[in-house]
Amino acid sequence: MKRTDNPFEPLTRAINPLTFSDMWDKMDVLLDAYTMPRMMMVNPLAMDIKETEKEFLCHIDVPGVKKKDIVIEVENRVLTVIADRAEETTNEEKKGDWTWKKVERFSGRQTRSLAIPENVDEDSIKTSYHEGVLNIHLPKKIDEMNQFSNKKKIEVN
């Protein structure tokens, strides 16, 4: 047997191609049912955090979520982002001249919480939203920033 020969070719030829295709579609559905909920639990809202001398900056991906559907709350030094993505109707088998084949995009409510460091001024938190990315600016308290600005350089003789 050559390395390029497909060992399943006789089986594929023996089975009706439609039946073979249907089998793979059913396997796909089973695998999706197993993997998709776990993928959503792993990282519901992907986030990057960086720190400068003056602030922490969080970038949170919220694709497909409208600005009005994002809620940001701070309670007991915990910042929580709640994003609601509208659900497209998938209950109907057929809609107009098209039919649902696969639904992978998440719809519904997603939340992400993070503890706010003690050196952050909660009253000065600001946000912006652009092209599916929520930016949260967490400015440091003035005392903390002065710690950096009072640094002095000493020359080596």
If you had to describe this structure to a student in words, what would you say it looks like?
- 25% of the residues lie in helices and 32% in strands.
- It is an alpha+beta fold and 157 residues long.
- It folds into two domains: 1-42; 45-88 and 107-157, Sandwich (Immunoglobulin-like).
- The strands form three sheets. A four-stranded antiparallel β-sheet has the order 1-2-9-8, with no helix packed on it. Strands 3-4-7 form a three-stranded antiparallel β-sheet, with no helix packed on it.
- The termini are far apart.
- The model has no long low-confidence stretch (mean pLDDT 76).
Question: What is the radius of gyration?
Answer: 26 Å
How would you describe the oligomerization state of the chains in this entry? single chain
Q: Indicate the percent of residues in helices.
A: 25-40%
* Structural class estimated from helices and strands: alpha+beta
Q: What general form does the structure show?
A: elongated
Major β-sheet profile: 4 strands, antiparallel
Topology pattern, helix = H, strand = E:
HHEEEEEEEEEH
CATH fold description of the largest domain: Immunoglobulin-like
Please report the first level of CATH classification, the CATH class of the largest domain.
Answer: Mainly Beta
Average pLDDT confidence is: 76
Number of strands: 9
Between the first and last Cα atoms, what is the distance in angstroms?
Answer: 78 Å
Number of DSSP helices?
A: 3
Strand order of the largest sheet: 1-2-9-8
